[in-house]
Design brief:
4 strands; 340 residues; 12 helices; Cytochrome Bc1 Complex, Chain D, domain 2; two-stranded antiparallel ribbon; mainly alpha; globular
């Protein structure tokens, strides 16, 4: 079987519901052949079409917030890989401004630590943070469940997803949201097709790939384009956000943030934990000339007395051309994820 056919069948599997009589492929999670194995506990929360649809409905429902004005989708737009293109820092209830940029959502099934500081270690618990955060949704999870229990629509949706007579509770709500989010697999960019099928990339993108492998891949490694680690990339000489230290209370983690995946990065501006850079060109210029020294600056950014990653304008342009090949147009336009 060709790799192209495998990729096609994977996409088809995402779009079809289970129907043994018709011989259709089962609805569920598809492991990309060139990705590391999924780490999400699928055995504890098997994905069904009904559970997925419930999760999608909840993801788009502002009922999660105190005054029913903010949903998960308010900060996570599918058209830009479920990032927030409008705000440098996340905007929550009562137009309050958050402390960090809302990250994109995809390929969560392959990661064990979430948010910029890694404060959550399982997909199922991700929604608890924004729901309870007074700047984001400002809602007690118990109140969310009470609202759902009082809703005939939610009673019907939970019964469809989990069976007649099942209780609406926080565990089932979180499992439904996870079923929706775990299915957000982005693995079909031009680069993927180059890797699997030899699709032609431009000369500039190929030069950029070589430069990326030499200068960037140590942190943005593998086909997830992240080493899933936490690093200080020299944004500030003085600490403006303690980052990972907030979770570990270890001095060596001061001002360290999770290395983000670079998949779909051309769509997910603004960049960095505080959204300070509006373009990829600005990001690369930071690494070229803007890296600031500090006690926890990553060793990869301070070599032989040189800070950062010196790159010419042409080299930077070539890297941008390569990064643009990581855009997964199929993912950001997939009707499977359209709001109900």
């Amino acid at each position: 079987m060709s790799k192209k056919l495998v990729l096609f069948l994977g996409v088809l599997g995402l779009l079809m519901a289970c129907d043994g009589d018709k011989g259709e492929l089962p609805f569920g999670f598809v492991q990309p052949e060139h990705f590391p194995a999924a780490t999400y506990t699928l055995d504890n929360n098997p994905i069904s079409k009904e559970g997925f649809e419930l999760g999608k409905f909840i993801f788009n429902d502002p009922l999660l917030s105190r005054d029913s004005t903010v949903s998960c989708a308010s900060c996570h737009d599918q058209r830009v890989a479920f990032a927030d293109p409008q705000h440098r820092l996340s905007i929550g209830i009562d137009a309050q401004v958050g402390a960090r940029n809302a990250p994109p959502i995809f390929n969560l099934a392959f990661v064990n630590e979430f948010f910029w500081d890694g404060g959550v270690t399982h997909v199922d618990f991700i929604p608890l943070n924004p729901i309870a955060n007074p700047v984001e949704m400002d809602q007690d999870i118990a109140v969310v469940i009470e609202k759902m229990q009082a809703s005939a629509l939610y009673q019907q949706k939970f019964a469809t997803a989990f069976g007649e007579g099942t209780e609406i509770n926080s565990a089932r709500m979180l499992h439904a949201l996870s079923q929706f989010m775990v299915m957000m697999v982005s693995a079909n960019s031009s680069y993927d097709r180059y890797l699997l099928e030899g699709e032609v990339l431009s000369a500039s993108a190929l030069r950029g790939l070589a430069l990326f492998e030499d200068n960037c891949a140590a942190c943005h490694e593998g086909n997830l384009f992240t080493d899933r680690n936490f690093r200080n990339n020299g944004l500030d000489a003085e600490v403006t956000d303690v980052g990972r230290y907030l979770i570990t209370q270890q001095d060596e983690d001061l001002a360290k943030f999770k290395v983000p995946s670079l998949r779909n990065v051309a769509l997910t501006a603004p960049y960095m934990h505080d959204g300070r850079f509006e373009t990829l060109e600005a990001v690369l210029e930071h690494y070229n000339s803007g890296v600031q020294p500090s006690a926890t600056l990553d060793p990869l950014l301070q070599s032989a007395g040189v800070l950062g990653i010196p790159l010419s304008e042409q080299q930077q342009a070539d890297i941008v051309a390569f990064l643009e090949t990581l855009t997964d147009e199929e993912f950001v336009s997939n009707p499977l994820f359209f709001a109900p």
